[in-house]
Amino acid sequence: MIELKNDRLVFNFPEVHPTATADISFQRTLRIPDDGNTYPLPAGLGEFPLSHIEDHAAKVPADMLKRGGVLMPMYQSEALWLNFSDDGYPMAIKVAAGKINAVTGKPWSDALAEQPQDYVVLPEQLWLDGYNVGEDLIRQFVAMPLGEGYTAEEQITGEAEFGGLQLIVYPMKAEVYYKLFETRSVIDDDMEFLDIPAFLRRPSETCESMGLAAGGLMRQEIYEDEYGMDVWDTESASRCFIHLCNSVDYAAITGRKPPHAPYTSKDYAQNGIPWFDYYGGEAKPLPGSAILGGLKSLAQIAKDKGEVIWGNETTNVGKVKVIKGEKTNSVSEGPF
Amino acid sequence: MLGPYLRQRREALKAKDKCYSLRQVAKRVGIEPAYLSKIERGEMAPPSEVTLKKLAIELSLDADVILAMAGKVSKDLQEIICDRPELFAELLRHMKDLPDHAVLRVVREVTDGDW
Predict the structure, then answer these.
(1) Could you tell me which of A105, A203, A97 has the C-alpha nearest to residue A146?
(2) 59-88 of B, contacting A, C-beta below 8 A
(3) Is B100 on the interface with A (CB under 8 A)?
């Protein structure tokens, strides 16, 4: 089952194990420039608000209701990353945007695939910032309106049908867990409210569906499953559709104030927010997806269309904080 | 005990990252280090709900759990109960002895539809 708790999706599998729980939140972050340079990881700048889609039944399209899940506001051209946390109980998680798998670039399927691996594994994977375009390299998730040709979904399928984010979570089989076993900083969201630039004020009559384009390049590893396919409990999966809604429409739909406008590189630098590099220890990274590696980036498409992406100037990376990964749930077994 | 629990958690984080020193955590939460020290040693009454929630975020702890350890119920939960007091009072009394898995069954689930 999935609960919505303090703007986090909490995947519980009490029928498998009392600690079989995974929290997934969606972090606001700096959109790194899409300028051909490779950037380190930007910090989390607070969680996106989430609400049950059924709470807005009167104001969202029927397609959204039919899919269930949660509603999340994003500004056009705003970036996000997925923050994973757990109680040490291993999970396999598939992540898709517009029903395009973010690890392989292949169309959505509920089942896990091994060749190529189409999922991430907790607790090794702490976060996911974008599409897997190369080994140690992702292109940042950036929200864009569906129908304008920017999203990975539209580039790969030629259709603008789903948008949003999709997740399915599989816990490790309890018997395997019993046999084997018994953070990136989030910056306080205390910056001053930034007024919404006029170009972001694009209210529509209903909820403008958004999808995720492939933004700037970032160093991030997506790790190989060290356990193997057989350990995942395929009978106990839970899945969720996260509908992305233009932040300005969000106010009209929910009656709640949308989050303040996204941070710019200038805000980020002025507030001395650090960047991060993560080294996952012995964990082996997956190769990039050729499909996703072939995507046109946000800036490339904008250039083709003669459009301008705001705030895409090359930025100087300031202080980079290095985080070293370590295994936290390994318990050695001796003779007994 | 709330204080030792907070201290244990902060010290565990500090072992991996020095930015979880008493002084730096207090600064980020917006309180004096001496005050945080007294809270951790149980020499002061628990701080306000706002401060407890900031501490929970800072230390990656569940705010509801921290508040409960401080003998408090968060304002949003109070509002929910006060909005429909008879219904929620009856519901909570009815559920108080149920095992966790039974309580989880009545928690509102995020739906999964056709996609």
Answers:
(1) A97
(2) 60, 63
(3) yes
ipTM of the complex: 0.72
- In three-state secondary structure terms, B85 is helix
Interval A24-76: pLDDT, tens: 999 999 999 999 999 999 988 889 999 999 999 888 999 899 999 999 999 99
Residue of A nearest to B53 (CA): A6
Q: Name the strand (E) or helix (H) holding A131.
A: strand A130-134
User: Which chain A residues touch B63 with a CB distance below 8 Å?
Assistant: 6
Place of tokens 């046999």: A179
Tokens of A137: 């390299």
Residue owning tokens 């702490």? A126
SS3 state of residue A1: coil
- Of B28, B111, B115, nearest to A162 by CB-CB distance is B115
Beta carbons of A54 and B109 less than 8 Å apart:
no
Q: Is A233 helix (H, G, I), strand (E, B) or coil?
A: coil
A114: left (phi over 0), alpha (psi -120 to 50) or beta: alpha
Neighbours of A334 (CB within 10 A): 4
